[in-house]
Amino acid sequence: MAGTIEVLVPGGQANPGPPLGPELGPTPVDVQAVVQQINDETAAFDGTEVPVTVDYDDDGSFEIDVGVPPTAALIKDEAGFETGSGEPQVEFVADLSVEQVKTIAEQKKPDLLAYDLRNAAKEVVGTCASMGVTIEGEDAREFKEKVDAGEYDDVLAE
Asked: For 57, which of 26, 68, 102, 122 is 20 to 30 Å away at the CA?
Protein backbone atom coordinates (compact mmCIF):
# COMPACT_ATOMS: atom_id res chain seq x y z
CA MET A 1 0.00 0.00 0.00
CA ALA A 2 1.15 3.51 -0.76
CA GLY A 3 -0.13 4.99 2.47
CA THR A 4 -2.36 4.80 5.49
CA ILE A 5 -4.67 7.36 7.03
CA GLU A 6 -6.14 6.96 10.51
CA VAL A 7 -9.06 9.16 11.57
CA LEU A 8 -11.96 9.30 14.02
CA VAL A 9 -15.27 9.90 12.27
CA PRO A 10 -18.86 10.09 13.54
CA GLY A 11 -20.53 6.77 12.68
CA GLY A 12 -22.58 6.97 9.50
CA GLN A 13 -21.89 10.72 9.17
CA ALA A 14 -18.45 11.02 7.58
CA ASN A 15 -18.14 13.74 4.94
CA PRO A 16 -15.46 15.04 2.55
CA GLY A 17 -14.63 17.87 4.98
CA PRO A 18 -12.19 17.68 7.87
CA PRO A 19 -10.76 15.46 9.22
CA LEU A 20 -11.14 13.07 6.28
CA GLY A 21 -11.07 15.35 3.22
CA PRO A 22 -7.76 17.12 3.87
CA GLU A 23 -6.09 13.75 4.53
CA LEU A 24 -7.50 12.09 1.41
CA GLY A 25 -7.22 15.09 -0.94
CA PRO A 26 -3.57 14.58 -1.95
CA THR A 27 -4.07 10.82 -2.47
CA PRO A 28 -5.14 9.14 -5.73
CA VAL A 29 -8.37 7.73 -4.22
CA ASP A 30 -11.93 8.79 -5.02
CA VAL A 31 -12.75 10.74 -1.85
CA GLN A 32 -16.52 10.40 -2.29
CA ALA A 33 -16.24 6.61 -2.70
CA VAL A 34 -14.17 6.37 0.50
CA VAL A 35 -16.66 8.54 2.42
CA GLN A 36 -19.61 6.47 1.16
CA GLN A 37 -17.99 3.16 2.13
CA ILE A 38 -17.07 4.51 5.58
CA ASN A 39 -20.66 5.67 6.14
CA ASP A 40 -22.01 2.28 5.04
CA GLU A 41 -19.67 0.40 7.37
CA THR A 42 -20.16 2.70 10.39
CA ALA A 43 -23.92 3.24 10.17
CA ALA A 44 -24.52 1.01 13.24
CA PHE A 45 -22.52 3.46 15.38
CA ASP A 46 -24.76 6.41 14.45
CA GLY A 47 -22.97 9.59 15.56
CA THR A 48 -20.48 7.88 17.91
CA GLU A 49 -16.81 8.54 17.14
CA VAL A 50 -15.42 5.49 15.32
CA PRO A 51 -11.74 4.84 14.55
CA VAL A 52 -11.23 4.22 10.82
CA THR A 53 -8.07 3.26 8.93
CA VAL A 54 -7.86 3.82 5.17
CA ASP A 55 -5.05 2.02 3.32
CA TYR A 56 -4.60 3.25 -0.23
CA ASP A 57 -2.47 2.31 -3.22
CA ASP A 58 -0.94 4.41 -5.99
CA ASP A 59 -3.56 3.14 -8.47
CA GLY A 60 -6.41 4.69 -6.42
CA SER A 61 -7.60 1.44 -4.82
CA PHE A 62 -8.27 1.47 -1.10
CA GLU A 63 -9.23 -0.71 1.83
CA ILE A 64 -11.11 0.47 4.90
CA ASP A 65 -10.80 -1.01 8.37
CA VAL A 66 -13.41 0.12 10.87
CA GLY A 67 -12.60 -0.20 14.56
CA VAL A 68 -15.01 -0.26 17.47
CA PRO A 69 -15.56 2.85 19.61
CA PRO A 70 -14.27 2.78 23.19
CA THR A 71 -16.53 0.98 25.69
CA ALA A 72 -17.17 4.24 27.56
CA ALA A 73 -18.42 5.91 24.36
CA LEU A 74 -20.79 3.01 23.67
CA ILE A 75 -22.13 3.19 27.24
CA LYS A 76 -22.66 6.98 27.00
CA ASP A 77 -24.42 6.56 23.66
CA GLU A 78 -26.66 3.72 24.90
CA ALA A 79 -27.57 5.43 28.19
CA GLY A 80 -27.83 8.94 26.72
CA PHE A 81 -25.50 10.98 28.93
CA GLU A 82 -22.48 13.16 28.23
CA THR A 83 -20.10 12.74 31.18
CA GLY A 84 -19.41 10.06 33.74
CA SER A 85 -19.73 10.67 37.47
CA GLY A 86 -17.00 12.49 39.40
CA GLU A 87 -17.78 10.16 42.30
CA PRO A 88 -18.79 6.89 40.59
CA GLN A 89 -19.48 4.93 43.80
CA VAL A 90 -21.65 7.70 45.25
CA GLU A 91 -23.25 9.65 42.37
CA PHE A 92 -24.87 7.70 39.55
CA VAL A 93 -25.44 9.35 36.18
CA ALA A 94 -27.46 6.69 34.34
CA ASP A 95 -28.99 3.23 34.52
CA LEU A 96 -28.73 0.49 31.88
CA SER A 97 -30.89 -2.58 31.39
CA VAL A 98 -29.38 -6.04 31.02
CA GLU A 99 -30.37 -5.93 27.33
CA GLN A 100 -28.42 -2.68 26.85
CA VAL A 101 -25.36 -4.22 28.52
CA LYS A 102 -25.72 -7.21 26.19
CA THR A 103 -25.95 -4.92 23.13
CA ILE A 104 -22.75 -3.08 24.11
CA ALA A 105 -20.97 -6.36 24.87
CA GLU A 106 -21.93 -7.75 21.44
CA GLN A 107 -20.60 -4.63 19.70
CA LYS A 108 -17.38 -4.61 21.70
CA LYS A 109 -16.68 -8.37 21.97
CA PRO A 110 -14.23 -8.59 19.02
CA ASP A 111 -11.96 -6.06 20.76
CA LEU A 112 -12.21 -7.54 24.27
CA LEU A 113 -10.22 -10.33 25.88
CA ALA A 114 -13.43 -12.17 26.80
CA TYR A 115 -14.01 -15.54 25.22
CA ASP A 116 -17.82 -15.44 25.53
CA LEU A 117 -20.65 -12.91 25.77
CA ARG A 118 -21.09 -13.37 29.54
CA ASN A 119 -17.49 -12.35 30.21
CA ALA A 120 -17.67 -9.53 27.64
CA ALA A 121 -20.70 -8.20 29.55
CA LYS A 122 -18.67 -8.32 32.79
CA GLU A 123 -15.97 -6.19 31.16
CA VAL A 124 -18.63 -3.67 30.09
CA VAL A 125 -20.06 -3.67 33.62
CA GLY A 126 -16.58 -2.90 34.97
CA THR A 127 -16.50 0.23 32.82
CA CYS A 128 -20.00 1.11 34.04
CA ALA A 129 -18.76 0.94 37.64
CA SER A 130 -15.97 3.43 36.95
CA MET A 131 -18.39 5.81 35.18
CA GLY A 132 -21.14 5.83 37.81
CA VAL A 133 -23.64 3.83 35.76
CA THR A 134 -25.98 1.36 37.46
CA ILE A 135 -27.47 -1.75 35.86
CA GLU A 136 -31.10 -2.60 36.54
CA GLY A 137 -30.98 -0.03 39.36
CA GLU A 138 -28.10 -1.77 41.13
CA ASP A 139 -24.47 -0.83 41.66
CA ALA A 140 -22.46 -2.36 38.81
CA ARG A 141 -20.35 -4.43 41.23
CA GLU A 142 -23.47 -6.03 42.73
CA PHE A 143 -24.74 -6.76 39.23
CA LYS A 144 -21.40 -8.41 38.36
CA GLU A 145 -21.74 -10.69 41.40
CA LYS A 146 -25.19 -11.76 40.15
CA VAL A 147 -23.73 -12.48 36.70
CA ASP A 148 -21.02 -14.58 38.37
CA ALA A 149 -23.74 -16.45 40.29
CA GLY A 150 -25.47 -17.27 36.97
CA GLU A 151 -28.61 -15.16 37.48
CA TYR A 152 -28.38 -13.68 33.96
CA ASP A 153 -27.13 -16.73 32.06
CA ASP A 154 -30.38 -16.90 30.05
CA VAL A 155 -30.02 -13.29 28.82
CA LEU A 156 -26.26 -13.42 28.25
CA ALA A 157 -26.22 -16.75 26.41
CA GLU A 158 -24.71 -16.53 22.92
From this structure: 68
